Amino acid sequence: xxxxxxxxxxxxxxxxxxxxxxxxxVSSFMLFKKIKGIFSPATIRNExxxxxxxxxxxxxFFSSGRKPTDKAxxxxxxxxxxxxxxxxxxxxxxxxxxxxxxxxxxxxxxTTKRLxxxxxxxxxxxxxxxxxxxxxxxxxxxxxxxxxxxNFLEELARFSDDFENxxxxxxxxxxxxxxxxxxxxxxxxxxxxxxxxxxxxxxxPLPSNKKSFFLLVGPKRINYEKSxxxxxxxxxxxxxxxxxSR
Length: 246
Hints:
This protein is 46% helix and 15% strand.
């Protein structure tokens, strides 16, 4: 990935945060207000031009503000992940009213619902051996502005319908990485042609040495920090409770 300066990094991260909060192109003046005048509007404009040439930003037409590209989102996710990896989070079952028992199906269904509650994303989970799939979150994700966009809605519906056919392929991709948390943005995803979607995936250990795969799906303009935080927090909690290899 092409190197960017510390100033460009600061501007890029703030621009992405602004675009995630408000789904419209970000102008140099909007960015000037967000960073509270650290740099002049002229400096910001010049740096935005440089970031566009480097492939981190794009614009719909000549006089519009800028939007982040997939390359920018990847840069943002890497920065967020690095910061979160330096922190240790704890999740207590009783705080979330979890009823942990040996009923794996109830456990997975409840966990899927809780991930939807905390992330507002469409969430899928499955048990490979039993070939059981849970899907939750259509109502939550329908509140995203992107839900009204034809390309996003068509891809999301197609992925949901095809998920059963991707069953083995998806699990093999993530099982190789044990309990790693993976984020796929647009064309990065290993599941097929879904360039308008973002995916967050991980495998959780379960009672009786079983595993379950969890996948969160949403638009690329999304709160990556919150989504990564909750998936990581739940994953770490399950690892502490059920991973016998620790």
